[in-house]
Amino acid sequence: MNPCVLPREEWHQPDRTDLYTLPFRNQFLIYRPRRHLAFVGNRALVDYLASRNSPNHDSTNSEVEAFLQDVGFDRPALDCKAPLVGDLAMPTQAVLLMTNNCNLRCIYCYANAGAEETLTEMPWPLAKTVIDTIVANARNSITNALSLTFHGGGEPTMHWPVLVQAVEYAKALDSRIRLSMSSNGVWSNTQRQFICHHFDEVSLSMDGTQLVQDYQRPRPDGSGSFHAVMESIMAMDEAHVDYGVRITMLPETVQHLPKVVCFLCEKTLAAAIQVEPTFTRTRGCYADINEEFADVFADRFMQAWQAGQAAGRHVYYSAARPWVVAPAFCLAPLNAMVVTADGRLVTCFEVFSEHSPVAKSFTVGRVREGRVDYDLGALRAFVDTQQQRRAECRDCFCYWHCCGDCATRRPETRARTSGRCRATQRITLNLLLAYMEEGGGVWQGLRDTSESRYLNPNTRSSP
Known about the structure:
Elements: E1 12-15, E2 19-24, E3 27-32, E4 37-41, H1 43-51, H2 62-71, E5 93-97, H3 124-139, E6 147-151, H4 160-173, E7 178-183, H5 189-198, E8 201-205, H6 210-216, H7 226-239, E9 242-249, H8 257-267, E10 272-277, E11 280-282, E12 285-286, H9 291-311, E13 314-316, H10 332-335, E14 336-339, E15 344-346, H11 359-362, E16 363-368, E17 371-374, H12 376-391, H13 399-402, H14 419-438, E18 442-443
Helix pairs in contact: 3-4, 5-7, 8-9, 9-14
């Protein structure tokens, strides 16, 4: 499989809403993302499709039309409604950004966790207010999606007493609540036992083999974290905890990615493995990746994806997801109450500090004096801005899947030749080619693949 990137001026969009034709090996890949349909055709077919629905189209080819009918070319498009901000924000899911403290010093940490001058920790009354609010919302709603997630600009288990208190209080208040956490997995034995007994799901940030993990995710004293995380993985496997692994790759380690995924498939029961290129230049400093790294990352990702497929695991990169047709990259701003340790309501798990460069535009309310106050105007403005940025990508064949990308990865308008876009396009294209190969030359939607379990676009992978 040879990855390729297509010059944007060579993309053809006869129907800008759901038909992209991409040059491929002297022919064209014809792609209808909202139909989950992809196949290869020649220039004559591309021209035929371009004029097929125009008033000047006066020649119908019965053989072509029979083929189009057979592959489902005109079947109804998958629904994709733009996100709306209601008159009243009543989420039944909450994310508590517990602390900026951390027991690791990962060399690429976007939050500079554990090294900030001021320690910030969520007070119990604030956590209690949030829990009370989502449980009350759930009781006044028809939804069953009552959940509480622990996250942070650091490691949530570093604020252990309040985390335990929040878990026990939430479960006592409503036993239906689902508990999840994003964590680095460096836990004490007591923490392991508690997490395995109480938590429904864990997103584990771990970079794989000991060589890569210890280099990229050291402890404050420089020692490695690999063995501690593997103990936590073994404990979760034994307790049948539902967990996924999130891997970050750097330019100097990306060559190890296929081996990392093979290791995780062999040594863990993680059903989902998320792989991301670093999005920081140094700790605490966001930056796009360069084209050279984008190309190598895309190549190694596809090798890792194939290893995952062979092992029945879902290996994915957040911006390349052709199985999804979504109105936005992330629906967390509308589906979840994301609360910082100092009581701000924010639209992203990464905006943990008021000092974040995007904190102002990502802040949509406050929790204070025992109540949750949304600024619906700010929330609408945030959603509108993301939709406007998404519209800039309409001519890209990744439009329906990437949806303008993560808000923190593109806080400003950017050229479509950025490194992250390049990686997204290469990986998306090669996933389509792999799906077509499996389908005998035509992709008509996911069937018995590991991705087929992840067709719901209304979820967001934790960073």
